Amino acid sequence: MSVATEPFSVRMEVRVYEIDPQLHLNGGFYVQYADHARFACVQAAGVSVDDLIRGGLGPVNLETVIKYHRELRGGDQVDVTCEWEWSGGKTYRVRHAFRRADGVVAAEVSHVSGLLDLGTRRLVADPRSEWRNRAGSPGLLGLE
């Protein structure tokens, strides 16, 4: 299993319209923040999602787990990391830590993902090599 040594991270601000009646970040936005961080990571690694899709492949999430540790409230700055883990099968895992500006981990989101062949509607056998072949900076995707 390969994991990047220094995870990619993107900073976001919790916006007021993302707050629920308990005055903290609504749960659905954790998934959206994780998706945003993963997309930014893929772009930083030099992968064109448009080219990926034109090539007949699309990333899919098969499982998403959210673990809440501390609140995120309106105006909070949060750094969302993106770490890729490869096991050699049709799926891989992407983990996200949500760290407040004070360094406290507010939440963790993890996905089991794969690459869908858009023609056959089946997962590709070796997503690791598909990502590596497209990445200019494969280390950001945990691929050395």
TrEMBL record:
What is the organism field in this record? Actinomadura napierensis
The major lineage groups are:
Bacteria, Bacillati, Actinomycetota, Actinomycetes, Streptosporangiales
SUPFAM superfamilies per record: Thioesterase/thiol ester dehydrase-isomerase (SSF54637)
Segments forming a coiled coil: none
Tell me the InterPro entries matching this sequence.
Answer: 4-hydroxybenzoyl-CoA_TE, HotDog_dom_sf
Name the UniProt record assigns to this protein: Acyl-CoA thioesterase
